[in-house]
């Protein structure tokens, strides 16, 4: 059984979705948010003949779901994409949706409105073909992936399926692992004093210098580790630093925020302990040195066994559709798949080809979106048995 994919419909839907501003309002104050695009997607499901289910997450920001109920006792599968995009600063025509030479341009074309269109085309294909799956097939779109993942956190509280395919862009490769991260604050404490009073002041900024020298050594050691077969070694950097209050005052504090990119199996406690060990060593060497370490925020890494049923299913169908063996790989950045995985839903990631994620010019290659739709449809047929 081959589910028909309406390529003209798919192309039109990518363009229409790109033309709707859905910039994440947590990323940019006053931005449009996901209300309008959610309404559009709900309407598109209705037109296909599927009753949309709306999950209000926050204000006018809502997830949109639809389900093709199985005939019974088959495995359930959800397809997922996010509705929001990053901002458009520097883009000449962010909402054009222009189709040229097989590419559609605009913010979100690649990350990831084309994937929403592919999922719609899959649902339409199943409805029109009349093909009945044994298990449920869920269409799910969520808000806020680009900032706080409130949409996915909400979704996994209310829906559980046996497996998921997250359709973030992967150039049609099969992604089965990604890194996580921990944001860590280190704060050195000094003692404020008039800039001339060297015998009273303790300079927290100078003390932070010692911390940074040691943390740089740690970060160099991290990237020497063997790491993960698909993700390489862990890493760390110091993106933010702030200290002192005034030109002629000894700095009473200095704080640095570290970002530690973590691998599957690495915990918040373990990475904080590594940094704490650096601080303890410096404190032992100088009674005037005081610093505190705390974790601010974290997102776990994700991995799924390459021989898990959903991975093997997607790999096999991708091979059929693409007539070549798709690469199995790990992604460097964090995705909502970690939240699906933590909710006990086996998740694999596959999405279209294109370029310009979060950049001045973004595009998706339409042919790859058509191929994605075929992969999703055939995967549902082989998985939802
Ligand atoms: Zn994305």
CATH architecture of the largest domain: 3-Layer(aba) Sandwich
Strand order of the largest sheet: 1-2-6-3-7-15
Order of helices and strands: HHEEEEEHEHEEEHEEHEEHEHEEEH
Residue share in helix: 25-40%
- DSSP strand (E) fraction? 15-25%
Overall 3D form: elongated
Bound molecules: zinc ion
What class would the helix/strand composition place it in? alpha+beta
Overall average residue pLDDT: 97
Fourth-tier CATH superfamily name of the largest domain? Zn peptidases
Distance between the termini: 13 Å
What's the count of strands? 17
CATH topology term of the largest domain:
Aminopeptidase
Q: Which spans of ≥5 residues are poorly predicted at pLDDT below 50?
A: none
Indicate how many domains the architecture comprises: 2
The number of distinct helices, counting runs of at least 4 residues, comes to: 9
CATH level-1 class of the largest domain: Alpha Beta
Cα-atom radius of gyration = 24 Å
Task: Give the biggest sheet.
Answer: 6 strands, mixed
Present the secondary structure layout.
Elements: H1 7-18, H2 35-48, E1 53-58, E2 61-68, E3 77-82, E4 99-100, E5 103-105, H3 109-129, E6 137-142, H4 150-158, E7 163-166, E8 174-178, E9 180-189, H5 204-222, E10 235-243, E11 253-262, H6 268-285, E12 290-299, E13 302-303, H7 309-322, E14 328-331, H8 337-342, E15 346-349, E16 354-355, E17 363-365, H9 366-383
Parallel strand pairs: 3-6, 3-7, 7-15, 8-14
Antiparallel strand pairs: 1-2, 2-6, 4-5, 5-17, 8-13, 9-11, 9-12, 10-11, 16-17
Please describe the structure with a list of short key phrases separated by commas or semicolons:
binds zinc ion; 2 domains; 34% helix; elongated; 4-stranded antiparallel β-sheet; Alpha-Beta Plaits; 17 strands; 6-stranded mixed β-sheet; Aminopeptidase; alpha+beta; 385 residues; 9 helices
